[in-house]
Amino acid sequence: MSLNPPQKTAGSGRPPAQKADDVNARISSKLHQLYESVREEEIPDRFLDLLEKLDAAEKASGQAASE
């Protein structure tokens, strides 16, 4: 039975867990940047019109159901 120390990955000399953490941090940063850019976009007028029509249809169907 031999007791060999764990092998490090070639290249940076860091254990694999640290590389995975670095990759996850970069992915997280990119996702935050993307989300922030989407949040700052204006809602198109066409989409707002569709939402208004949906609200009107829901109100109309609610009034018809209560009668």
Helix and strand sequence = HH
Beta-strand residue fraction: under 5%
Rounded radius of gyration (Å): 27 Å
Output the structural class.
Answer: mainly alpha
Which spans of ≥5 residues are poorly predicted at pLDDT below 50? Answer: none
Averaged pLDDT: 81
Largest sheet: none
Amino-to-carboxy terminus distance: 83 Å
The global form is elongated
By DSSP, the count of extended strands is 0
- Domains counted in the coordinates: how many? 1
Total number of helices: 2
* Percent range of helical residues: 55-70%
Structural features:
67 residues
Brief overview:
This protein has helices at 16-39, 45-66. The chain has 67 residues and is mainly α.
Describe this structure in words.
This protein has 67 residues and is an all-alpha fold. The protein has one domain (16-66). It is built from two helices and no strands. It has helices at 16-39, 45-66. The longest helix has 24 residues, at 16-39. The mean pLDDT is 81.
